[in-house]
Structures are given as structure tokens and as C-alpha cells.
Design a protein that fits this description.
Blueprint: H1 13-25, E1 30-33, H2 45-59, E2 64-68, H3 74-87, E3 91-95, H4 104-115, E4 122-126, H5 128-131, H6 137-143, E5 149-154, H7 159-169, E6 172-175, H8 181-186, E7 191-192, H9 201-212, H10 216-234, H11 240-248, H12 261-281
Helix pairs in contact: 1-2, 2-3, 3-4, 4-6, 9-10, 10-12
Length: 282
């Protein structure tokens, strides 16, 4: 979920409550807060905790609220994990430490220490394209032995490797790459953690619902209709936060800059076309 800000750049908790409630009403089983799309590098620890409390209050006890707590500092990450637990989160999204590019033994130790910091389940966020370090399959197998490391947000873009780990470990794999939502689900994935779902939650849900119903052709068709918007939002050279907020409204925090007029117009055209297709589908 994006983190709404007001015109002065402050945290807009009323808008966050409204967005969270709408996303759940339109098919999201849960919400990930304070992730990359939530602009976590530019929000304070206090803002992160306030956002969790506001969203927890807005959606009630049913939908899962997962808090992004990952940083490049193990001690800070563990502290954010404890704060998230206190604020009412149901689980933790923990990204691989970035920039320092620790070796695999250090990556493993980081995740284990964070998992031991609270009683909450942990989703490992494997995104080597951003962090510079992959959680190697052997490391992931060892992490899976920890009782609270239960899931992976998978942005490794290695479908073969992910399929093997799903089969071998029992970890719940969630696609973090929009183009792999359906392919990963088809080989045993649990679902997705989606930026595009900020603006098209019903359609993303419909793809997996069709697959669950045995309508694989329908799932493929619904997924194909999503691809123009997915490509514009996630492969246009702009962060997904920027493209999502171009459709939802509201500012981004620097160093990010808002989408230009031409980009925003193209996004709206693709989004409106998808909404028309959804109306025909319904």
C-alpha cells in the first residue's frame, strides 16, 4: 500500500484509513505497510508506527496487516519489528540488508535475529535488483527451518528456483514482480504483494480467483488485460510509488518526484481502459 501524504508532505492518516478500507473491500486479503511502495526510506519510525495503528483501526482484526521493517541495520530492523508488533501488525516484511552487500552467513544471521525479536511471522523480501544481494536458495532452505520465517516476497525473477523452494520448504511464496503473479501462483505460490493492486485490486484478485475455479484460460485472459497497465506502472523507468500516486493522487516525498503530465495521462488512459473491461466482465 502507498503511504498517503498531505499537501505539506505530512502523513495523512485519514487518507490512509480510507485507502486501506477500500482495498480490503475490493478484494485484498491483507495489506503491506511501510514497504518500498510505502516510501519507507523517507518515513520516520514514529510515522511507521502511526500508520500501522491507523490502518489496523480502519480494517479491523480480519485482514492481515504486514509491516515492512527492513533496513540495512540489524539492530534498527529488530527495533522496528518490536514497534510494529506493539502497534498491532500481524506479520513482518524484512528485506535483505542493502548497500553493504553482506555475505550469505551474515544475511542468514540478520533474518534469524529479526525473527527472534518478536513473536510475529516473518516474510523474507528477496529483491537482489535493489539490495545487491540475493538470498541464495541454500540460505532460504536454512531460514525455512525457523518456526516464524514462513513466507517470501519473491522478486528474484527466478521461477525455476522459486518453484523448487516452494516444493522443498513449504514457505509461502508471494510474487513481488507483477508479471509473475499468475506464473508463480500456477507453480504453487500463495499469492502476490502488489503495487498495481493499489489501483486495480478487483482485477488482480479476479485473475487468481479464476485460476482457483479451474478457468485457466479465463485467468490468462484477465491477466493479459492487466499487462498494459502493469507495464506502464512497473516498467516505465519510474518507481511504482510514483506511478501509483499519479493515479491515486497525492504527493511523493523527495528524492522521488511526481510523474510528468504525459506519463500521468498515459497511466490514466490505461487504467480507464481496464476499468471499462472490468465493467464488461462484471
Amino acid at each position: 500500500m502507498v503511504t498517503p501524504f498531505d499537501a505539506t508532505g505530512g502523513l495523512d492518516l485519514d487518507a490512509a484509513r480510507e485507502l486501506a478500507a477500500r482495498l480490503v473491500a475490493e478484494g485484498c486479503d491483507g495489506l503491506v505497510l511501510n514497504g518500498t511502495t510505502g516510501e519507507s526510506p523517507t518515513t520516520t519510525d514514529a510515522e511507521k508506527a502511526a500508520l500501522i495503528r491507523a490502518v489496523r483501526d480502519a480494517v479491523g482484526p480480519g485482514p492481515a496487516v504486514v509491516a515492512g521493517v527492513g533496513t540495512a541495520d540489524t539492530r534498527h530492523t529488530a527495533e522496528l519489528a518490536r514497534q510494529a508488533e506493539e502497534a498491532g501488525a500481524d506479520g513482518l516484511l524484512v528485506v535483505t540488508p542493502y548497500y553493504s552487500r553482506p555475505p550469505q552467513a551474515a544475511v542468514e544471521a540478520h533474518f534469524l535475529k529479526v525473527a527472534d525479536a518478536t513473536g510475529l511471522p516473518v516474510m523474507v523480501y528477496d529483491i537482489p535488483g535493489r539490495t545487491g544481494t540475493r538470498v541464495e536458495p541454500a540460505t532460504m532452505r536454512r531460514l525455512a527451518a525457523h518456526p516464524r520465517i514462513v513466507a517470501v516476497k519473491d522478486c528474484a525473477n527466478d521461477l525455476l528456483g522459486s518453484a523448487r523452494l516452494i516444493a522443498e520448504t513449504g514457505l509461502a511464496y508471494y510474487s513481488g514482480s507483477e508479471e509473475l503473479n499468475l506464473p508463480l501462483y500456477a507453480v504453487g505460490g500463495a499469492g502476490y504483494v502488489s503495487t498495481v493492486a493499489n489501483v486495480a485490486p478487483r482485477r488482480l484478485r479476479a485473475v487468481l480467483d479464476a485460476f482457483d475455479a479451474g478457468d485457466t484460460a479465463g485467468a490468462a485472459r484477465l491477466n493479459a488485460e492487466l499487462l498494459p497497465l502493469v507495464e506502464l506502472m512497473m516498467a516505465s523507468g519510474l518507481p511504482g510509488t510514483v506511478t501509483a500516486k499519479a493515479l491515486l493522487g497525492g504527493p511523493v516525498r523527495e528524492p522521488l518526484q511526481p510523474a510528468d503530465r504525459e506519463t500521468a495521462d498515459g497511466l490514466r488512459t490505461a487504467h480507464e481502459a481496464l476499468l471499462r473491461a472490468d465493467s464488461a466482465f462484471c
